[in-house]
Amino acid sequence: MASEINDSNFEELVIKSDKPVLVDFWAEWCGPCRNIAPYIEEISKEYEGKAFVYKCDIDNSPATVNKFGIRNIPTVLFFKGGNIADKQVGSAPKTTYTTKLNALI
User: Fold this and answer.
1) Looking at 33, 36, 51, 76, which residue is catalytic?
2) Class for domain 3-102, per CATH?
């Protein structure tokens, strides 16, 4: 299951990670976010041990949202070595997320 992250643990879990990281910026009230949620959960299980998968609720993490300029959701950021390596804005098929993540592994 994808773990929740927020302003207080984002740096430790994402920026300092030694593995690629997928972060899904979402909100409970966002329909497209709910549409991709099953994909994010499947990816978190499929990539266990190879990459980390987190969900960041934009309503609970304003500093992180501002830091990365998140303006539309869902936005999925892909990190490697503490830096943004790729991103996907808006909902997309599962293969879009896995292809981007595979490129970082």
Assistant:
1) 33
2) alpha beta
CA gap 54, 101 in Å, rounded: 13
pTM for the structure as a whole: 0.97
Of 5, 14, 30, 73, the catalytic one is 30
Whether 33 sits among the annotated catalytic residues: the reply is: yes
Domain chopping of the chain, boundaries? 3-102
The tens digit of pLDDT for each residue in 58-68 reads 999 999 999 99
For residue 1, what pLDDT is reported?
A: 81
56: annotated active-site residue? no
